[in-house]
Amino acid sequence: MRKKLFIVLFAVCISEVAIAEEEPVLWFTTAELGEYWNSRPAVFDKQTVAYLQAKLRESRAVWEKNKGKYQNSYTYTRAFSSWVGFGHKTAVRVKNGVVVERHFEAFNRDNKITESYTEGPKDIGTHKRGKPVSTMEELYEECANAHLKQNPKRNVLSLRISQDGILGGCTYRSIGCADDCTRGLQGFRFAWDYSAFRLQYPVPFEGKK
Predict the structure, then answer these.
(1) Which residue among 33, 38, 77, 164 has the highest number of C-beta atoms inside a 10 angstrom radius?
(2) DSSP strand E in the chain: where?
(3) Average pLDDT over residues 16-23
């Protein structure tokens, strides 16, 4: 019997919620399985860059087919965590295809928040720190035209697709680099606003006016 995978959402303070795992995401990469030994569960599939681009186009088609069903409204988070413990998280909320909210938190190696803000419709994008206020369409373009365009002879390219077909990650990492080397769409979590699993968790934003 399959287990259910609930996508993690961050509340206003972007508090992490435990993940109940279903079948693992699909992870297409130009690397060997052993290079991502600590990233299970995932279905690893070493492939060419052209194959990764093809899978991305398939995912984009799934996105285009389904976004109307959910009024093109959703929340996603992007996170970075250094091997020494510090990091940051950005949560973005999109309503009817327009970014309406962004929340950012930075934390130190003791997991204490060192900086945070919440932007509403009137001040979206006014803070320098944090990931850009991108829509999913823009993230698909970023993946295709930036991250998967890196030289595969010098970088490990990876594409993650969630079990419902939506983009779940798109990164590159310099071959031979040891620490904090991954770039791109990493630490990514996505949920439609009106999906069943979204309602399992608190609304990420209370709505800044």
Answers:
(1) 77
(2) 25-29, 42-46, 74-81, 87-95, 98-107, 113-119, 155-161, 167-174, 182-185, 189-192
(3) 33
Give the single-character DSSP code of 176. T
Q: Is residue 11 part of a domain?
A: no
CA 196, chain centre distance (Å): 19
Gap between the Cα atoms of 199 and 188, Å rounded: 19
Judge whether 17 lies within some domain. no
Q: In the 8-state DSSP scheme, what is residue 39?
A: G
CB 102 within 8 A of CB 130: yes
Q: Structure tokens of 46?
A: 């070493």
- Which residue segment(s) compose the domain that 36 sits in? 25-200
pLDDT at 30 over 50: yes
pTM for the full predicted model: 0.76
- Tell me if 35 is assigned to some domain: yes
Strand 42-46 relative to strand 25-29: parallel, antiparallel, unpaired? parallel
